[in-house]
């Protein structure tokens, strides 16, 4: 079922592979998450055997066949032959709304368990359930909804086109390149909420609407993968970006903050120590600081990237072509020799 759709059930069928020495001892029940249980068959009048290789199917769409006749068709060894029957329901009737038809018209939930159970009323004979195959036919009653109003393939294509404005498209052909890893992360693995969209306004660095904030987040991810961020001595990404416990553990292993310098403007993230690639704005990642709200056109745009004491002014890393600030002081990147790995250029940027 497509995500975000309602699906109204038209029919339910179940195919069973069961071993048992006396079918007349058994009651079989199928239950749904929303519509209760339906008797498939209840102690049919037969002493025949069920063998799992002869699959028995219950389906109310077929021509009415009384499940109480289960056991009439047997082979020379007394084993019930494969066949299809209507469900018995709660009473003596079959093929009615209290059989499998009780599920029809109900809305299939996106979560919940269907349960098949067998009640054996008498001791002495044993059996096993070898296979259960449930087939549900339903009609979509609403259109699927997707983040960004784009299906996953369209969203991925638009994100790549956006990132090709700052990275050479050829770099995406190598799945091991920092650019490819960053593209995959921001497309498929980034768990920030609300989800970021290539075709809509997002919270973040937009230069007054001139650029999509996904670009800055992507570039920092390129920096992370180019410097082998998983091997940093701190602030590495959580092992599981969907697990709050893993995120908390990664955050606890990050105490990097930017080196203060004397500016009067508001800043974002200058005291934050969240792990990189975590589900917060990238300004909150350890060692990152951004301009604040009192600088409207630069709000949440990178102001400082600080990983130690030695200032190496690498303007290309921070996409100086996208930002107005070109001085080494305000765009300085601090690199600590024992904290990072990998080459800074040409991996970062084009």
Structure commentary:
With 350 residues, the chain is α+β, with helices and mostly antiparallel strands. The chain is 13% helix and 21% strand. It has helices at 152-163, 178-189, 214-226, 244-252, and strands spanning 7-20, 26-32, 36-42, 56-59, 83-85, 107-108, 115-120, 127-140, 267-268, 288-291, 302-306, 310-312, 333-335. The strands form 3 sheets. Strands 1, 4, 5, 6 and 8 form a 5-stranded mixed beta sheet that branches. Helix 1 runs antiparallel to helix 2 (178-189) and helix 2 (178-189) packs across helix 3 (214-226).
> Could you estimate the helical fraction of the residues in percent?
10-25%
Q: Main beta sheet: strand number and arrangement?
A: 5 strands, mixed
The best one-word shape is elongated
Oligomeric assembly? single chain
Tally of strands:
13
**In terms of structural class, how would the helical and strand content be classed?**
alpha+beta
H and E string: EEEEEEEEHHHHEEEEE
Number of helices: 4
Arithmetic mean pLDDT: 81
Distance between the termini: 41 Å
Spans of at least 5 consecutive residues whose pLDDT stays below 50 are: 91-97, 309-350
* Percent of residues in beta strands: 15-25%
Using only C-alpha atoms, the radius of gyration works out to 31 Å
- Counted up, domains total 2
């Amino acid at each position: 079922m497509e995500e975000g759709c309602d699906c109204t059930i038209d029919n339910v069928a179940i195919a069973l592979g069961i071993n048992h020495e006396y079918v007349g001892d058994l009651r079989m029940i199928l239950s749904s998450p929303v519509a209760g249980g339906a008797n498939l068959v209840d102690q049919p009048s037969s002493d025949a055997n069920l063998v799992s290789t002869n699959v028995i199917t219950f389906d109310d769409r077929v021509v009415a066949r009384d499940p109480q006749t289960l056991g009439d068709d047997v082979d020379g060894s007394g084993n019930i032959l494969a066949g299809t029957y209507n469900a018995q329901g709660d009473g003596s009737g079959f093929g009615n709304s209290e059989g499998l038809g009780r599920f029809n018209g109900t809305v299939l939930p996106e979560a919940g368990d269907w349960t098949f159970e067998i009640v054996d009323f008498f001791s002495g004979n044993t059996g096993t359930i070898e296979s259960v195959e449930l087939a549900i036919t339903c009609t979509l009653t609403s259109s699927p909804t997707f983040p960004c109003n784009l299906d996953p393939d369209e969203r991925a294509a638009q994100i790549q086109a956006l990132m090709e404005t700052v990275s050479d498209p050829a770099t995406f052909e190598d799945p091991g390149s920092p650019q490819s890893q960053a593209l995959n992360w921001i497309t498929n693995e980034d768990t920030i909420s609300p989800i970021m969209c290539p075709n809509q306004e997002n919270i973040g660095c937009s230069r007054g609407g001139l650029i999509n904030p996904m670009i800055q987040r992507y570039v920092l991810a390129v920096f992370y993968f180019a410097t082998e961020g998983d091997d940093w001595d701190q602030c590495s990404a959580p092992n599981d970006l969907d697990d709050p416990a893993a995120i908390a553990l990664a955050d606890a292993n990050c105490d990097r903050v930017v080196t203060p310098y004397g500016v009067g403007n508001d800043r974002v993230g200058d005291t934050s120590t969240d792990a990189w690639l975590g589900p917060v704005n990238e300004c909150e990642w350890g060692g990152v600081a951004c301009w604040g709200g009192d600088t409207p056109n630069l709000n949440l745009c990178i102001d400082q990237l600080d990983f130690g004491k030695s200032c190496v002014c690498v303007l290309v890393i921070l996409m100086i072509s996208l930002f107005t600030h070109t001085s080494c002081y305000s765009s300085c990147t601090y690199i600590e020799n024992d904290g990072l790995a990998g080459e800074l250029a040409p991996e970062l940027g084009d």
